Please model this.
Amino acid sequence: MKVKCLNCGEKVLDSSDSCPYCGEPLRWYQKKLPFSFLIMILGLFIFLMVVLFTVLSPSHPNSTEPDATLSEFSSVNIGMSYSDVRKTFDSYGELISQSELAGIKTEIYVWYGYLGANCNVTFQNGIAVGKAQVGLK
Model:
């Protein structure tokens, strides 16, 4: 492909280092870009888009809105039932751990906020026995 020399205006092959008519070096943006450079730019663009969407959306991948806020988390009290906690967050949460030992069923649910923030509530036989949060606002 030919490009126009910025000095003399003649058409020059983009693979040339300089204009054969006037000797003016071609600028980097006038030369044909190598395929690997284009792939690198595309990869950088994709990476930046992933980071952008991760930062601007709730941390849970299947969510469009956060499930949890600090205010809602603060309203959860030890001794509340799972049903009451679910109503507090207006969401079912995500069951991330479950076990049963000696007739005690233990379940841990997580509710997500923005930018990686989340909270966990631990239930035994359907009653909240512990809670923790990171980064809720």
Observations:
- Helices lie at 35-56, 70-75, 82-89.
